[in-house]
Design brief:
The complex is a heterodimer of chains A (266) and B (201).
Chain A lengths: L7 H20 L5 H28 L2 H21 L9 H25 L8 H32 L1 H9 L4 H4 L1 H21 L7 H8 L4 H34 L16
Chain B lengths: L5 E10 L2 E9 L3 E5 L6 H8 L6 E6 L2 E2 L5 H7 E4 L20 H6 L16 H13 L5 E5 L7 H18 L2 E5 L3 H7 L2 E4 L8
Chain lengths: 266, 201
């Protein structure tokens, strides 16, 4: 069965559902209606914009434009990582570390999967490159956002414990072992949950989309498995890199914990 | 500069939150430090342990602080903050070597305290355990930030005796922050008032 096209009328009906929900919440005086509507409008505009951009990208089929799109996605993701920090590193370090830690695994794994695993020709074909990069980047972003926030706020709240270990002659690596471990676990918990319940509790979005558009379920499942492995690896590597760079920035060359390099709590 | 016979030489040590200090300590010596709140006593001790950025030099037996890896320096020049930090649930997990029973008893602590949870300790018990933990790494200089502030008079005397005995057997030196003139008269070989920090803050 091939794809059934949706009309503006179909989408309008679906939008009415959200309107009704907003009305119901407002009637009960529970607030939130406004942000529900604003976010819905944002969602429609953003997705329409992305749809137009993708249509153009597909038509032009220019590798440089694909790369530019990837770069924009990366910059926005870096901004999202910073926005999740309660205690940001001063001087743009939070943004820089987030970008580097995302870019390295996300881009290299996307290119690896395009060239070797999926074997797309040409390898930069936007139909494959953009969705793959988007999914890998999105999940890596979430992981790094969580892990880096845990690292910086944990260093601030755990200062006495960390310094106690430094004072007993431990290196900064030993003194932050627990913190690094905590940060990694916090960052990767959603990924591990996702792997554990995949297909049982929820059908992953990409697989659902492929099935809706007529792909045989087992083909869709194979793609989903591939993407899950890519997401897990990219998130894990990105988080480890972010933690490593973050710890180095939190300490100076004399292994002093430098909380003055963090902004005050938001 | 003549550093013969001295254990610790502090030359022009200065930080953001404390005024310049020059000081020489000999082996076995106990120096009491006092001064107004905000004069930067704790910041001075933190700088000695190289936990805080600072200017000036500190020599331990002629070796300058910056020439030694930071973690090695902190083992030799050990700082006990006014509130010590505990990172594990149980007391015993904080000791690389379990302390001697007689050392525990000497500070009025039962050996069973090592099995207890840090959460349930009084601040006085924490301070005494913090001192034992520190002495366990056999430092050459110990920096004590109001170590007996939360102790009853009997326990304070025990702690003073413990530190004295350590200085004598190890040939170590100590800087002890104390606000109590009676205690200072009792334990200090020398007392030093922390200079006023003109920069403020």
């Amino acid at each position: 069965m091939s794809l059934i096209h949706l009309t503006a009328y179909d989408l309008g009906l679906a939008a009415l559902l959200v309107l009704a929900l907003g009305g119901l919440i407002a009637l009960n005086g529970l607030g939130l209606t406004r942000s529900l509507f604003v976010s819905s409008v944002r969602m429609v505009l953003q997705l329409l914009l992305v749809g137009l951009v993708l249509e153009a990208l597909f038509r032009l089929d220019n590798p440089w434009l694909v790369a530019l799109m990837g770069l924009i996605m990366l910059l926005v993701a870096g901004w999202e990582v910073v926005a999740r920090q309660k205690r940001r590193l001063r001087g743009g370090w939070g943004y820089g570390i987030g970008l580097a830690a995302m870019a390295l695994p996300a881009f290299s794994l996307t290119v690896l999967s395009l060239t070797v695993l999926v074997g797309v020709k040409p390898w930069y074909a936007p139909q494959y490159a953009i969705p793959l990069l988007g999914m890998i980047l999105g999940n890596t972003m979430t992981g790094i956002g969580l892990g880096f926030n845990r690292l910086t706020s944990g260093a601030a709240s755990g200062r006495r414990e960390i310094e106690a270990q430094l004072l007993l002659g431990q290196t900064m690596r030993e003194a932050t072992r627990r913190l690094r471990q905590d940060s990694l676990h916090t960052a990767l918990a959603p990924t591990i949950n996702m792997l554990a319940v995949a297909g049982l509790v929820s059908l992953p979005g990409m697989m659902t989309g492929q099935i809706l558009s007529g792909t045989p379920p087992l083909e869709a499942v194979k793609y989903q498995i591939l993407i899950m492995f890519l997401i897990a690896t990219a998130s894990g590597l990105g988080v480890m890199l972010a933690i490593e760079l973050g710890v180095r920035r939190l300490f100076d060359e004399r292994q002093r914990l430098r909380l003055d390099r963090l902004h005050d709590a938001q | 500069m003549d550093k013969s016979g001295s254990l610790l030489d502090i030359v022009g040590l200065q930080g953001l939150h404390f005024a310049r200090v020059d000081l020489r300590l000999h082996s076995g010596e106990l120096l009491c430090l006092y001064g107004a709140s905000g004069s930067g006593k704790s910041q001075f001790l933190r700088a000695l342990a190289d936990l805080e950025p600072h200017e000036g030099q500190v020599y331990l037996q002629g070796v300058e602080q910056q020439q030694m890896p930071a973690h090695v320096w902190r083992r030799k020049l050990a700082y006990l903050p006014a509130e010590s930090g505990w990172w594990s649930a149980r007391v015993g997990a904080h000791f690389s070597r379990p302390p001697q029973t007689e050392d525990l008893l000497g500070l009025g602590l039962e050996e069973s305290i090592l099995q207890r949870e840090v959460e349930g300790l009084s601040s006085g018990e924490r301070q005494r355990l913090g001192l034992l933990r520190l002495l366990g790494q056999q430092p050459q200089v110990i920096l004590l930030d109001e170590p007996s502030a939360n102790l009853d008079p009997q326990s304070a005397l025990q702690m003073e005796g413990c530190v004295r005995a350590y200085l004598q057997t190890q040939g170590a030196a100590a800087i002890w922050v104390s606000h109590d003139p009676v205690q200072r008269a009792r334990i200090a070989d020398r007392s030093l008032e922390m200079p006023i920090n003109m920069q403020g803050g």
